[in-house]
Amino acid sequence: MTPLLTVEGLTKAYPGVVANDHVSFDVMPGEVHALLGENGAGKSTLVKMIYGLVKPDSGRMTLRGAPFEPAEPRAARAEGVAMVFQHFSLFEALNVAENVALGMEAPPPQHQLAARIREVSETYGLPLDPGRIVGDLSAGERQRVEIIRCLLQDPKLLIMDEPTSVLTPQEVGILFETLRKLAAEGTAILYISHKLEEIRALCDAATILRLGKVVDSCDPREKSAAELAEMMVGAKLRRPERAKRALGEVVVELDGLSLPPASPFGTPLRDISFRVRAGEVLGIGGVAGNGQDELLAALSGEAQTRPEAIRLHGAPIGHLDPNPRRRIAVLAAPEERLGHAAAPDMSLTENALLTAAIRQGLAVNGFLKWPAARAFAEKIIETFDVRTPGAGNAARALSGGNLQKFVIGREVLQRPELLVVNQPTWGVDAAAAAAIRQALLDLAASGAAVIVISQDLDELLEISDRFAALNEGRLTAPRPADGLTLEEIGLMMGGAHDMEVAHVDG
Amino acid sequence: MIRLEKRPAPSRFWAGLTPVLAVLATMAAGAVLFAALGKDPVEAIRTIFWDPLFHESFAAYSRPQLMVKAGPLILIAIGLSLGFRAGIWNIGAEGQYIMGAICGAGAGLALYPSESFLLFPLMVAAGALGGWGWAMIPAVLKTRFGTNEILVSLMLVYVAENILASVSSGLLRNPEGMGFPGSRNLQQWAAAANPELIANTGMHWGVVTAFVAVIFAYVLLNRHMLGFQIRLTGQSPRAARFAGVDPARLILICLGLSGALAGAAGLFEVAGPAGQISIDFGSGYGFTAIIVAFLGRLHPVGILLAGLLMALTYIGGELAQLMLGLPSAAIQLFQGMLLFFLLAMDMSANYRVRIGKPEVA
After folding, report:
1. Inter-chain contact B232–A343, Cβ cutoff 8 Å?
2. Is A175 within 8 Å of A163 (Cβ atoms)?
3. Domains of chain A
4. Which of A152, A297, A493, B139 stands the most exposed, by the fewest C-beta atoms within 10 Å?
5. In the 8-state DSSP scheme, what is residue A394?
């Protein structure tokens, strides 16, 4: 059988970094082919070249034996290449059919299109009502809109970039059924992920990228997850160590915390209650957009609530601003590094000042102590191995992982009694992620209460003592993380949204 | 294809160089403009930039004028720059300047003919308060109802101009002025006058205050928490909220400070160089100060230099009207070009020009 797509010696360099260095691989028709690699390994650049978004510096591609040089995504689509992006490009105020029509060259009339959408969604087990407003859909349902938008083009090659990062385990199962059905019909699927178990469950072949180069290829079904991880990282990974520790008294207690949404498509928090003890890590999972940002804002003080909704050592603090909370050792690190946790154009010294002025005594009567601020920034850089030429560098000049280490380190070094972090290792390479997780565990071991909000279930199971899930602004009752199965977690996360009755024909 | 690429960090080199380049570009474009008007371009540029300082017969008169014109520009621009840094756009400094002059002069005239040495400080305080109060209108409307401070503060300029016209022919009219509009001349009333402190320098209390404001703003922005919060809010409002900045408080402080400084500038002008409240008291300092603030890159020292440069084009422009018969609109156009070129050149600090095919990263 001849390959559907052949990639030979594809190279793409950006200033300062070679994103892809002579990458070669083949994709067979009907094959589910994994592109496996860490963040920054060059997976995204590679598929962008296949999809016509990025022009390679050198190398060539052939599609069905013919030279393939898409100048733009439209050309790639015309050749039967479709792509589902990690970040959706949907208009929240429009309905599903309108959104699909916006992505088409010559959209049919709405009622015909709606019928087509229904037909495709039923064939592939992706139930979706064309008339619903996208703003009301869950992340998993939004992804279905994107997938159906692709399937309407009848693609020969479907590229999926980290499709499961926004799905519950049940929704992942449904997606996989769909993808298997597509593959059985002869559509090749190029599947980008760094989640090893998924790749082992789904894919027929894997190409492993590290630092822009193909380092290996294998049949993932024949390898263990640990073997795949080693190929991907190129070294053995050290798992964070959890010291056995006795839990202390209750540090923070939430009692019926409710918060109206800040924006029309925001998520309200509904009646959230839990307790975290000294030395304990509470992991909060859930699909993105189910109230994670809002919960962090309520805990950090960016959003205020009824005073009694949040208590620290029994004292009501729900009404306090961020700085009064910092004074009593309640610290937070938001998800968005640039523009929320840190100011992009400011130096690391200034960014250290951003949250540490109070606890580190960096201001006296409002006058700033720059030498002390710089010293604190340098301490963070040294303690957390932040790779940067110096504390004078702008935050936006740092890589995501290094800035994340800085942001987490800034809070950890202020010795919080309660630390709340949202997505602490999002977009961070494996070594940095391990360091951050270890820092959080060490902090808990030293007697702090730690709340980790994350969409990475493996991460949560690795570091939490107890686990709870956010679903449409509600929090499930926390359960001991030890012994919790993925199935149970999935149900806590809300199962598959509106999918209980869905079946795939054939 | 030519395209712009965002720099990973703003270039300090370009940030410092762009004002100089903008001045040069303005000179070049101005020369073309003046040539098109049938004037000798070299002569026109020399008249504007050189003669006010070094011409053998005019310089003695125009050199002190430099301080007189630069003082209010710098004082107002310093206040504006604090708000601009935080993303709070007070466009109505002209109105605050007029209201400061009216309130300050009014407070003084109410006590005529007092000779108390406290009179002038009282007038300064009343002037600052008048500007502050006028700026509080957009500030309160913005914090309470979310109105746009650009529109409200700008519209209030025209309200202030009408109040000015009203009081100069009514409430504050000189009772001994034989019915002519305009207040008593404060320059001729020692206790209320803002005199030239050192002969032939143009230095008056307003200029002194402007220099003090430069130092104050520098310390505030670089050494004080409030200045840090101002810069943080302008760069990254969400991070500022996370850092515990109260946006409403910052709006009140920034608009209030810029209003108070503009009001004080108005008082120094009415009690000094202008001498009296009159219908044509508003001279556009409040608007020109916006250009000065940006030309100075919102940096206190930059504003000091930009204020002096802008004053120079004012005086030189008048000289050019007188000597070469250039229309005053051409001079205003010339001053406007300065801001235009600065904003255009500003891009080079944050972006670099690349030649090649665009890419989606």
Report:
1. yes
2. yes
3. 5-233 (3.40.50.300), 248-329+418-428+449-506 (3.40.50.300), 338-414 (no CATH)
4. A152
5. B
